Input
Amino acid sequence: MLGMEGSDDVVTKNQAENAVKTLLEYLEGDAQREGLKKTPQRVIDSWDEIFSGYKEDREELLQSTFNGEGYDGIVLLRDIEFHSTCEHHLQPFSGRAHVAYIPIDRIVGISKLARIVDAHAHRLQNQERITKGIADDLETYLKPLGSAVIIEASHGCMRCRGVKKQNSVMTTSAMRGVFFDKAEPRQELMQLLQSRPL
Ligand SMILES: [Zn+2]
Output
């Protein structure tokens, strides 16, 4: 098993590959043609990467901090691209995350903000839970004055099936601390997000 928190290894890699083989047989009857022969193995191998978030230690990630030397402004990492998988249909969804916080004493290495996005995105997910999960982790492990997460994503299950809308983008946000309590820091964050990229 890939490492779902708190679960035992009840399904082996071999059993998972056989399950994929069954799905291929559901589609085509015989799944032995050349192009499909190694597909079950390839699918399960690719899951190690696509679902690597189950193995990430988010606490360790966000506790890799530095002295902020009195910096008390907004730290914003925007346009963090991510890919995730919808838990309802196993369809991909992808987009951009913007992650911000206002430090108290400690600042976190900037790549860690990108990695915390992937730690949540690389699981079976919905966009709301990713958004909330990143904000909750920032609050729990970094303990900033405030944190904010805004995610814009396009969903495979909207594009390829059901209502078949190609260009719809879903936006979600989670505001914590001063970003939730006060209009000024929230407005400053929105202005930073609207400013032109370099
Ligand atoms: Zn879906």
